[in-house]
């Protein structure tokens, strides 16, 4: 009986996004597409004598590597989701992979800028016809990859796990009336992978425009100029990803409005919140630790009930202290 009682108070710490498996499958498929296009560009560039195609092929290898990091992160997070070594699960593995991908994207931007400046100062001969054809094929592959990786469901997921019994950690119910939508259900890992294929698509579009202008009008200078423009745009995307993933890795408050809502719900009847920690555990999952002081302390279960209906609170810990310091309750 005692063992059963303990088990009823325990729960898993699995904070993966609800579309984790879908994203993993699609990312692996895009890795295969990108790797195939990379090989095709290197071979075509070698056959047609186009260094631009060879360079773009090796440039795609960095995207393939970054996409592989994203896919491996999904696999690792899934396989180790129940590993007790990870205190709060593996939900933030995607943030780590996303941050790494963002850094790689920044390096790619620097590489493109360097190559573009070099070619602007020292123009090279270009096989316009062959290069344009391969660039168009590359664009189609990138658009297909972007379609596969696009997360069209930016709705608010349903992540409630009610354990009841005033358990050590309670999972709040979703609010289906839309008043407390948690705004951090996005998957940074899939977003980073998506940005990589978008960056490739952007460079393909700019390359096609530059190649056609060079082919028909002799504007060979436009090719490196387009490269510089592309590098600046990619660098901006990279910075946004670094800030987004870095904020989660540093456990910043994911939503100040949500934190204020939680505090307002808890601070009623003379109760005061003395310490509040809100952080992201994974896509659609947030953790909460709140310490309260009260003239008339009640059970932590009652305080958790006040948070019912707030979407995305997947791991709640409440500590209650009497103002006169004569009683102490924690859960």
Average pLDDT score: 79
Number of discrete domains: 2
What is the 3D shape? elongated
SSE series: HHHHHHHHEEHEE
Largest sheet: 4 strands, mixed
Largest sheet strand order: 1-2-3-4
N- and C-termini, Cα separation: 21 Å
For the record, what CATH class of the largest domain applies? Mainly Alpha
The CATH superfamily of the largest domain is identified as Cation efflux protein transmembrane domain
Rounded to an integer in angstroms, the radius of gyration calculated over CA atoms is 25 Å
Helix content: 55-70%
Strand content: 5-15%
Number of strands: 4
The CATH architecture of the largest domain would be Up-down Bundle
Q: List low-pLDDT spans.
A: 153-182
- CATH topology of the largest domain: the name is Alpha-lytic protease prodomain-like
The number of helices is 9
Which structural class do you get from the secondary structure elements?
A: alpha+beta
List the helices and strands and how they pair.
Blueprint: H1 2-8, H2 20-48, H3 51-79, H4 93-121, H5 128-149, H6 188-217, H7 222-249, H8 256-266, E1 272-282, E2 285-294, H9 300-306, E3 313-322, E4 328-330
Parallel strand pairs: 2-3
Antiparallel strand pairs: 1-2, 3-4
Describe the structure.
The chain has nine helices and four strands. It is of the alpha+beta class and 331 residues long. The chain folds into two domains: 2-151 and 186-249, Cation efflux protein transmembrane domain (Alpha-lytic protease prodomain-like); 256-330, 2-Layer Sandwich (Alpha-Beta Plaits), CATH 3.30.70. It has a four-stranded mixed beta sheet. Strand 2, helix 9 and strand 3 (313-322) form a beta-alpha-beta unit. It is elongated and about 85 Å long.
């Amino acid at each position: 009986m005692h063992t059963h009682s303990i088990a009823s108070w325990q729960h898993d710490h699995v904070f993966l996004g609800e579309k984790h498996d879908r994203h993993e499958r699609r990312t692996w498929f895009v890795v295969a597409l990108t790797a195939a296009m990379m090989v095709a560009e290197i071979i075509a560039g070698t056959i047609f004598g186009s260094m631009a195609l060879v360079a773009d092929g090796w440039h795609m290898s960095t995207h393939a590597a970054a996409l592989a990091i994203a896919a491996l992160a999904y696999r690792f997070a899934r396989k180790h989701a129940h590993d007790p070594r990870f205190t709060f699960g593996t939900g933030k593995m995607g943030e780590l992979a996303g941050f790494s991908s963002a850094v790689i994207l920044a390096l790619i931007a620097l590489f493109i800028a360097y190559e573009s400046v070099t070619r602007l100062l020292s123009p090279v001969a270009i096989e316009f016809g062959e290069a344009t054809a391969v660039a168009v094929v590359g664009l189609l592959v990138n658009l297909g990859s972007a379609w596969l990786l696009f997360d069209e469901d930016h709705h608010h997921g349903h992540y409630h796990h009610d354990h009841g019994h005033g358990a050590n950690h309670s999972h709040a119910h979703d609010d289906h009336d839309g008043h407390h939508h948690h705004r951090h259900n996005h998957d940074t890992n899939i977003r980073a992978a998506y940005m990589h294929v978008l960056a490739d698509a952007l460079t393909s579009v700019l390359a096609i425009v530059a190649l056609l202008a060079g082919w028909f009008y002799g504007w060979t200078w436009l090719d490196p100029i387009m490269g510089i423009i592309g590098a600046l745009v990619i660098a901006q995307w990279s910075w946004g990803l670094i800030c987004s993933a870095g904020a989660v890795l540093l456990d910043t408050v994911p939503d100040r409005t949500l934190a204020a809502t939680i505090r307002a719900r808890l601070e009623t009847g003379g109760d005061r919140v003395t310490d509040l920690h809100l952080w992201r555990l994974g896509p659609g999952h947030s953790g909460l630790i709140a310490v309260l002081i009260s003239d008339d302390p009640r059970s932590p279960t009652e305080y958790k009930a006040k948070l019912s209906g707030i979407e995305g609170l997947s791991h709640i810990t409440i500590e209650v202290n009497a103002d006169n310091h004569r009683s102490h309750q924690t859960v």
